[in-house]
Amino acid sequence: MKITEAKWIxxxxxxxxxxxxxxxxxxxxxxxxxxxxxxxASLPQDTLMYTVYTCQTKxxxxxxxxxxxxxxxxxxxxxxxxxxRGHFHEDEQCxxxxxxxxxxxLLLLMDEKGQCHAEKMKEGSIHHINGAFAHRLVNTSDSKxxxxxxxxxxxxxxxxxVEDMPFSVRVFKEDGKITIKENN
Length: 184
Description:
Layout: E1 8-11, E2 16-19, E3 22-28, H1 29-32, E4 48-55, E5 65-72, E6 76-77, E7 80-83, E8 96-102, E9 104-110, E10 116-122, E11 126-129, E12 134-139, E13 145-152, H2 159-164, E14 169-174, E15 177-182
């Protein structure tokens, strides 16, 4: 019997994934400005907002799964908590699982009518995401938020739909307290 090494290794201490064909995407503030209610002139354009590590399988059989890790920095933009871009799945039959590895935050979920609700994320919390809901991570803490995720290969990401119908709430940190405001 042949014994091989794993294709991917998640380094829990460093908050990253290494291995064969791991895609790494870093989102800087200059690329993320449109995610927030207003721009923050005090924030340098090259501020790292979040990093996504993706382990994708090489074929597109619907039974196959992808694995990923999102590492969100503890940054606020004009007092608004750091968020990921957020997306719907192209195939709404494809659910997703998030597992909070480190930190604290919110998993913001939005239905097809624009109604939002959120789930608290903390170390060890596991979140099932209905494939028909848009989803976005929000880092509400003063440390990194690290979230592992697993989703079907054929789920796809529909970012345009969220651009056309933005999340109806925003999360702010003011005087050390988290406040949620309706998006006007």
